[in-house]
Amino acid sequence: MANRIFIAGTRRNAGKTSISLGLAESLINEGYRVGYMKPIAQRYAVVDGEKVSEDVLLMKEFFGLKESPTDMSPFIVEEGFTDKYIKGEVKSPKNKILRAYKRIEKGSDVVIIEGTGHAGVGSIFNLSNADIARLLDAQVLIVSEGGVGSTVDSLTLTNSLFKSQGCSVLGVIVNKVIENKLEKIKPLLKKGIKKQNNLQIFGFLPYKSILLEPTLLVVKKALNLSLINKGDEIISSPGWSKEIEKVIIATMEPHVLMEEVTGTNDNVLIVTSSDRSDAILAALTLYHSGVPNLLGVLLTGSKPPDSIVKVIEETNLPIMIVDGNVYSIAYLIHDLTVKITQKDEMKINILTGLFDNYIDKEPLLEGIFTQLEEKPDWLVKITEWWSKIKEFFSKIKEYFQKEPKT
Length: 406
Known about the structure:
- It is a single chain.
- By secondary structure, the chain is an alpha/beta fold.
- It is 44% helix and 19% strand.
- The strands form four sheets. A six-stranded parallel beta sheet has the order 2-7-1-8-9-10, with helices on both faces. It has a five-stranded mixed beta sheet with strand order 11-15-14-13-12, with helices on both faces.
- The radius of gyration is 25 Å and the shape is globular.
- The model has no long low-confidence stretch (mean pLDDT 87).
């Protein structure tokens, strides 16, 4: 029997994958065999014809995990599944998840089970995060974003749901605390969380903006941007993998734009209207002058004049175009959700370093290895049979409650 820990979030993007990465590395460094699974996933990639969670691909590749990716990612919520489930056209993936977990735990000392979204996600088909934690008999580690009142409020709601399902909540990690407020917030949250939830806090992680900054390639894919200047040198440019640290909306005079770009060490994406030929030429001038921090230019609106397009096609600076206006596109970039991938080695190293430096690992690992008493196989089977019997009689009841056809 493997020990198991369910990583839950108080909200979407609270940092569940970040904590899973740090925890997995700590356990592996201690010599434990670590398994990982994401029972329910929404974002996925297709690998060898199979849909696999993006987070599973990250964990599998980075740590070299040997388990089957389809066991690690047993259920993908595809479009239309919820409607079909409500109509009774598809079955619950509960047994599929349980079987996948059993295969993963055979070769593991510890299985990290990562939830999806907030605690209630999946409730519509009777498999919320709390339901899955109970199904797999896993202790729960809650990840909450830093704040004070909002943190305690969301943590109370999340903790209550897991407790209502009979889950054992091990404690909480507070993530993304603004660094210069860290020392002020820590005593307040310790007191507030103790008073309202009586949960152990295993650490406070500071917010690092670089972890949320999208690369040029991420922006291109997310906004479905078209390249004006195409070619092998453009596509293979190393600038695509660099984080965009600053977006400059080029509505100013060309010389002011050039001063803004050269006056910062941040990696810059210029966003401007396609009819601003002066801003486009200023950007091209910067590029040909060898300014290293200009990653690219994003034009909004219709295609620029042919004379400008001809100049663009002769440069290797990525220049893209999209429908919309300058400010709405800049807002979309700012609001873009960035998921860390297996290629983001620098970000992964930052995350694991934060976990190593800010988490109180000794009591956390001690809690993980103090598991609840394992249920006997016969009790597990009886529980499963009873669940099926209740489901059967529930369907009969629904059938007889239907209004007779006229």
